[in-house]
Amino acid sequence: MKPHIIIVVFTLLASFSWVVLSYDRYAKLKSWPVSRWYEENTSLIKIASFVSLPGSALASAYVAQWWIAFMVIIVGFCIAQLMTSLFKKNVQYIALVGVPIFFL
Questions:
Q1: Which of 36, 43, 69, 79 could be stapled to 61 by a disulfide with Cβ–Cβ 3.0 to 4.6 Å?
Q2: Distance, CA of 78 to CA of 55 (rounded, Å)
Q3: What is the pLDDT of residue 36?
């Protein structure tokens, strides 16, 4: 695979991980429903997101140059904010599917 495609995949993984890790607190502020997958801190999806967020940055730095890791984290955060703004309470289900797909 080309390095550019791999970097895009790692950026999407980072953005889905940001959504999973931050949705429950943001949803409580907005009075949105929170799925049972997001309620517990030790749920499997949160553990996978906690591992995949720094893992995507480290893997992108390994595939490309070292500064790409910062770009993956920052652009992933921006995409996560954009997805949350666009899909609102349904973003939790999108991220619930996105993390396992890009994690594998």
A1: 69
A2: 18
A3: 84
Task: Identify whether the C-beta of residue 46 lies closer than 8 Å to the C-beta of residue 20.
Answer: yes
The tokens for 76 are: 């992933």
State the CB neighbour count (10 A cutoff) for residue 28.
Answer: 10
Q: Is 33 left (phi over 0), alpha (psi -120 to 50) or beta?
A: beta
| pTM of structure | 0.89
Q: What percent of the chain has pLDDT over 70?
A: 97
Show the tokens assigned to 9: 């995949």
Asked if 92 contacts 30 with a C-beta cutoff of 8 angstroms, the reply is no
Nearest to 32 by CA among 44, 19, 42, 48: 19
At position 1, the amino acid (one-letter code) is: M
Residue 15 in tokens: 């953005």
What type of residue is 82? Answer: L
Q: How far is CA 94 from CA 11, 65, 71, in A?
A: 15, 30, 23
